[in-house]
Amino acid sequence: MGRVWRLGDNIDTDALAPGRFMHRPIAELAAHCLIDVAPDFAAGAGVGDVIVAGRNFGMGSSREQAAQALKIRGLQGVVAESFAGIFHRNAINLGLPVFTILSGTLPEAGAEATLDAGAARLRHAGGEVLLDPLPDFLIEMIRDGGLVPHLEKRLAREGRR
Amino acid sequence: MTLAEKLIARAAGRTTVRPGEVVTAAVDLAMIHDSGGPRRVEPILKRLGVGLWDRDRVVLISDHYIPGDDPDGAAILRLTRDWAQAHGVTFHDGHGICHVVLPERGHVAPGRFIVGGDSHSPTGGAFGAYMFGVGATEMAGVLATGEIWIRVPETIRLDWQGALPRGVVAKDMILAMCGRLGMDGGRYQAVEYTGPAIRALGMQERMTLSNMAAELGAQAGLIAPDEITAAYVAAAGGEAGDWADWQGDAGAVVAERHDFDAATLAPQVAAPHSPANASDVGDQAGQALDVVYIGACTGAKYVDLRAAAEILRGHRPAKGVQILVAPASVRDQARAEAEGIMAVFEAAGAQILPNACGICAGYGSARLGADIRCLSTTARNFKGRMGDASARVWLASPYTAAASAIEGRIADPRNHLEGA
User: Fold this and answer.
1) A2-133 — its CATH code?
2) Which residues pair with residue A74 across a beta bridge?
3) Can you tell me the ipTM of this complex?
4) How far is B228 from chain A (nearest CA, A)?
5) Does residue B188 belong to the interface with chain A, where contact is any CB pair within 8 Å?
6) Is the terminal CB of chain A with fewer CB neighbours within 10 Å at N or C?
């Protein structure tokens, strides 16, 4: 459970992970996540919060620090009308749940909401949002904590480590 | 099957694939750079406890932190160089921007399945390779296993009939497509550029189109290979191989088709803060400028430098306008040098910057200051990307950049070209 942050269309990865902080430690970069386009978010978003965004979330540069910044700040995940492809892959690879909105009543900014990845639902006081389910192997990857722990399991199974 | 489906089927060891299917593909080549490469993948490889799946299939290129003139950047470059030596991969250090260097050094060829650790990796699609960008964690997975999952995309065909008028180039074509389709028009599918106006382009112009498939939101930006492709690849020391086989079938099903007319295309300018804000140059003409930036993989290749110099020759920028030129590769700069093109920039008082991503990616010391108004030949004008959040960036072709520098405001390059 956490607060909802409403963002618009075409939130880009330069805004999520500004170039001028890319050479700095990830915690410092994460502290400046969205500072240029949503300073309230940069100042206040934290553990358990959820982003509800418009179309093409995460467009632009492939820098995965964009998804990592959200993960480090402890967000439950991002639900959006659509995602840019590389960001979507990066988020799953880092174990950050990302879901495309199918239908339902969207929560207001600041509302309390819970993202249920397994059921592909965003539940809030005003109702629930139906989300496009991810394939089972990607849900498993998110549950493992991302691609790296997922691969650790696989490589161990295959006897490579 | 479409070209995209054929390329993915081959990499997945299948005879056919259908859009929507998820398959595992064997990677022919992995390209990484100094920003998303060693410093990000090495900790993951260490944690996994495995080495590279095949060091002969990994190409490392330093381009983001070149020249390394600040302590953090210098440390990242040192780490990058040490890693290259320790792992014995092919390393192009300071040779230029990865998307230009990779084909220039013969690493890209028709039919290949390539992943790049950078969002402009669709550039390789200009050669009839399936190439797309991934983040560092996913790249670490590729480096460890040589495999990647991919959902077979639908194909969106973007067809260009007619011939480009003088003063209108590939950058105008891709900005026009961004303007019409928007930044999510590609829906992470494969776009394929077709038609006589595409066939008429040289490889560096085709690369501009494929590069900015990223700005269309596509996964890949393909152009079926032809004699022009084969000649470029051979000259670069690569293997063009069975290039003629890599064509979509005549009856292949595409999800969408959009038709464009090259003959009636005007120079395009994308207003701040999105490439999708593109329209005819007349809509933005007269906007005053402080900086004209000719840089990046999509805007400072040899052909781009040549175009800008064609207009700039014998002229100075308007009072108060600074021209910055960051040639995309060492080889492209050397060729421009040999042909007197660099001398044109120098005579115009331009500042020549390193062969690197530079301020296009928000890196380096030349970043735009507060309230600066910049016309740039790069791919993205997102708020804050090239410097201060109050800076405003317009995107346009090298022709338009040169004409605008001379006038000190956004200008139609056709007024500066004979025969336009």
Assistant:
1) 3.20.19.10
2) none
3) 0.86
4) 30
5) yes
6) N
- Name residues of chain B where pLDDT drops below 50: none
Q: Which member of B48, B184, B363 has the closest CB to residue A82?
A: B184
Q: What is the DSSP string of B24-93?
A: EEE-SEEEEETTTSHHHHHHHHHHHT---S-GGGEEEEE-SSTT--SHHHHHHHHHHHHHHHHHT-EEEE
- The closest of A59, A6, A86 to B273, measured between CA atoms, is A59
- Residue-wise pLDDT for A83-120, tens only, equals 999 999 999 999 999 999 999 999 999 999 999 999 99
Number of inter-chain CB pairs under 8 A, A vs B: 124
pTM to 2 decimal places: 0.94
Of A22, A23, A89, the CB nearest to B134: A89
Residues of chain B with Cβ-Cβ distance to A63 below 8 Å are 35-36, 135
The answer to whether residues B85 and B103 touch, using CB atoms and an 8 Å cutoff, is no
Domains defined along chain B, listed by start:
3-261 (3.30.499.10), 267-415 (3.30.499.10)
Q: Is there a contact between B384 and A36 if contact means CB atoms under 8 Å apart?
A: yes
- Give pLDDT tens digits for B326-338: 999 999 999 999 9
The dihedral over CA atoms of B220, B223, B224, B228, expressed in degrees to the nearest 10, equals -140
CB contact under 8 A, A94 and B137: yes
Min Cα separation A63/chain B (Å): 6
- pLDDT at position B34, please? 98
